[in-house]
Design brief:
152 residues; alpha+beta; Lipocalin; 8-stranded antiparallel β-barrel; two-stranded antiparallel sheet; 2 helices
């Protein structure tokens, strides 16, 4: 009897995770990125980007809204502050999506798990990070929130 109850409970836990994953699969277009509730200055008010979630991998790529081709070293360096890209396999743990970052635009995230709380409302997916040190200024702590709109 106890084995049956345990097997049923385990089956429900596994199927809940699978159902959550199925609801996230798709291609999303970036709506907004905020740091502590405010748009990140270097990205502008309307950054551009995509999030692609397949059954096994997740890819994120986005850029700032007013990027211009850089010719000087300082212009090229400024472009770096208006970019984010990463990809890797992921898993769902309840309301958390944990990405095992395999590749990233700046190598700093490679090999690290990146956890985000996810919330789906209609076609909008919100990914919210826990408070973390800001990569460009480790003395600062920020909460990053990304809003995505499902397009496929």
């Amino acid at each position: 009897m106890y084995r049956s109850i345990l097997a049923l409970g385990l089956g429900l836990l596994i199927s809940t995770s699978c159902l959550a994953q199925q609801s996230l699969l798709g291609t999303y277009k970036l709506v907004s990125v905020t740091f502590d509730g405010k748009p990140r200055e270097s990205l502008g008010k309307s950054p551009h980007g995509y999030l692609i979630i397949t059954p096994k991998h997740l890819s994120i790529f986005y850029t700032g809204d007013k990027r211009k081709f850089g010719t000087s070293d300082s212009e090229k360096a400024a472009l770096w502050d208006t970019l984010l890209a990463l990809a890797g396999p992921y898993r769902i743990e309840g309301k958390k999506i944990v990405i095992s970052v395999d590749v990233s635009y700046n190598e700093i995230a490679n090999g690290r798990p990146l956890a985000r709380t996810w919330q789906m409302q209609g076609r909008q997916l919100t990914l919210t990070g826990d408070p973390q040190s800001f990569g460009r200024d480790p003395s600062k702590t920020v909460v990053i929130e990304q809003k995505w709109e499902r397009i496929e």
